[in-house]
Design brief:
The protein contains 3 helices and no strands.
């Protein structure tokens, strides 16, 4: 389960990076209006705005969900491992060595 989520998380992050780099900024639309060939793109003359915007949003949501899931799984694994490594003591050990008590402090 953990390895599958790690693989999905890495693939989503790499795809998200590629999509963000593939998108153009707001200022790039003005060059397309002067005939730079935007109507011959893969996504049509409308541009890649709506499709890439929705796909990027979906990938971002998947990235956040996998991040939260991974952090939850790591936290529960750490808690379980800590309980196994350091068992709780049920009773205090009995000491057979007498401890001296200073009786001068009690006389006031």
């Amino acid at each position: 389960m953990y390895q599958l989520i790690i693989i999905v998380h890495v693939l989503v992050s790499l795809t998200l990076i590629g999509l963000v780099l593939m998108q153009h900024g707001k200022g790039a639309d003005i060059g397309a209006s002067f005939g730079s060939g935007a109507s011959g793109t893969v996504f049509g003359s409308q541009g890649t705005g709506s499709f890439l915007f929705k796909f990027t949003g979906g990938l971002a949501m998947t990235f956040f969900v996998t991040s939260l899931t991974l952090s939850y799984l790591v936290a529960t694994r750490h808690e379980n491992a800590q309980q196994l490594a350091i068992p709780q003591q049920s009773s205090a050990p009995v000491s057979s060595i007498p401890v001296p008590v200073d009786s001068s402090k009690n006389k006031q």
